[in-house]
Predict the 3D structure of the following.
Amino acid sequence: MREAATATAVRATIGDSEFDRDTAVTRRVPGVYDVGLSAGWTVFGAVNGGYLLAVLGRALADALPHSDPFTVSAHYLTACRPGPAVVRTDVVRTGRTLSTGQASLLQCDEDGNEVERIRVLASYGDLDALPDDVRTTAQPPAIPPIDQCFGPQDAAGVPLPSGDPAPVAGSSAITGRLTLKLDPATLGWALGSPSGKGEMRAWFGLADGRDADPLSLLLTVDALPPTAFELGLEGWVPTVELTVHVRCRPAPGPLRVSITTRNLAGGFLEEDAEVWDSAGRLVAQSRQLARVRLG
Amino acid sequence: MREAATATAVRATIGDSEFDRDTAVTRRVPGVYDVGLSAGWTVFGAVNGGYLLAVLGRALADALPHSDPFTVSAHYLTACRPGPAVVRTDVVRTGRTLSTGQASLLQCDEDGNEVERIRVLASYGDLDALPDDVRTTAQPPAIPPIDQCFGPQDAAGVPLPSGDPAPVAGSSAITGRLTLKLDPATLGWALGSPSGKGEMRAWFGLADGRDADPLSLLLTVDALPPTAFELGLEGWVPTVELTVHVRCRPAPGPLRVSITTRNLAGGFLEEDAEVWDSAGRLVAQSRQLARVRLG
């Protein structure tokens, strides 16, 4: 009772939320931003790649004349650690409807040398200026109602075949920041019976109730457990490259996310994500190339 | 008879073909390459984006310690013209299994000022070093046998609803460089009856018989008529961003290419391409964000 009442009372808003505080960028000089990578968005110690993309995306939104990410391509170079970092941006081209920029996220190593963690190339525009025309043939993913789906707290302690606790359990800080409710049909891995299909589906929200916006969609596309788990693989699936297309400003309310892998081969796989908003619009599409540890 | 005999006699090879000559890069100083963009790869005067990506990809293959493109993300800034251009590369990170680089293609405007046309971020590796493990669930596209598919010469002169000749007809130089045989099920647009589905499928080869390699796959993913035609739209569909994953060195022989669009909305669409080789391997996947002119 108390939790529900508190959640209602302090429901966060866009601009005033955990996500906004933890992705804040402080302009040092034009184009250069100081950031503090929060330990609150880690998965077993690794900083989530979608959270990092949102940090870079916020810096680019400040550096470019347009504020909405339309297409963002990130190449992940070295693993980030929670703590201070700097984002250096470069305006590549400014146009009437689209602007293109580049950004690098860097951290200092133990000797004080800057090491590049991620490099991003992105084109920004104004989502509100797009026509309403929708001729999509895509259909939202078939996910059971949210109260029939399972969150990390439900799965906590469920042992994996390896004997490790389920990776969505409380040991990963990010699970406390998200309201993630997984489709039972894609939860076999947590019960020791992966489906063998490269699919993962979930309802997604931010735990403090903040609604989605184009920047938070950059987090959403990389926030579900990896499809590799349902393919019977374990362990970390580090992202090599992730490209996100934001296609529409999301309506308030929970999002539906579907991740699909068609090609697991040669130690790599792709993960295609679709994000649907409460109004039934396909608001983001992404694809990443990730490495897997073959068993 | 004569044509067939000639084709057999002069069948081009990887390294000695139209494609190799027209994507050649000449190192001016380390990391900087002079290139000549050929008019042979134009579509109604515009230089094909996949051909351009192959030029950039070849420069990066020289600049980086690894030679195979694993994931290449390109943002298209301004339209290229046939003629001289320069590619400037930058090594972002070199690793044991993957190296990441950046490249820009630039041309001089009428005042002699360099204008950036395309910027690319890419990670390269060694495809031959990957394990053979394949657990893909993807299936090759169902395309009729090649002799039941239709090439540009077959479609030449077929009028579009606008009265313009079919865009795959001889007026586009690139059609002479490709052996493109379209699935009749995705050819409705050329007969004035677009299917309404965002699908395009074809057999693909280089006209001079050169087999595919990782660099030519960068061309292949962007070489079919746009899916927008089957969605009833006309005109140019300029690419904003194109990311290609090369997943396997292609076997010799014709390729099968499938392009799918799920989300046409707000004046943009995505095009997802899959390329399958003659051995039944999924050798490349790509996604692009493109602009459409809504009718």
Remarks:
- The mean pLDDT of chain B is 90.
- Residues 79 and 117 of chain B are 6 Å apart (CA to CA).
